[in-house]
Amino acid sequence: METKNVMIVGVGGQGSLLASKLLGKLLLDEGYDVKVSEVHGMSQRGGSVVTYVRFGDKVYSPVIDKGQADYIVSFELLEAARWLPYLKKDGQVVTNIQQIDPMPVITGAMEYPKDLVDKMKALGAKVDALDCLALAEQAGSAKAVNIVLMGRLSHYFDIPKDAWMKAMEQIVPAKFLEMNKKAFELGEKA
User: Would you state the CATH architecture of domain 4-189?
Assistant: First the structure.
């Protein structure tokens, strides 16, 4: 199988590391060669962060270049738009519709862009946008946005749900497991 590329993007502190670990573990368990990059960006300060997950028969590098991402999984709407140049022509964006103001918006130097989903679609992107924060809160914690997104991403992978659950059982601490399973299912069924 040719190498597939997933970019997980968001704002520091949103759980992209757990999401990339879960996806990496799942894909390893499914028999793929997997490379997962470290989180890049201002992860401690609420800045833009990105993690690359690449998988296939043989993967030589964890880096994804512009125009090479099969999937962009975004925790925040502006981050989806920011990283859009990395998406392949027929790639898929899976994004939370939550908006987190970056510093230029907070300081009043800029306004948060409007109609980002429509703008991304106008550029030819396939965009699956949903309110992951509301679903995470329904599951029991606003911090479960990452797992809601993984549930949504599962639609685009030919991997059985029980494999996702098994990987989650190995990655997520036991005290948060049931809530995260619920978050996954809410994202999957949204």
Answer: 3-Layer(aba) Sandwich (3.40)
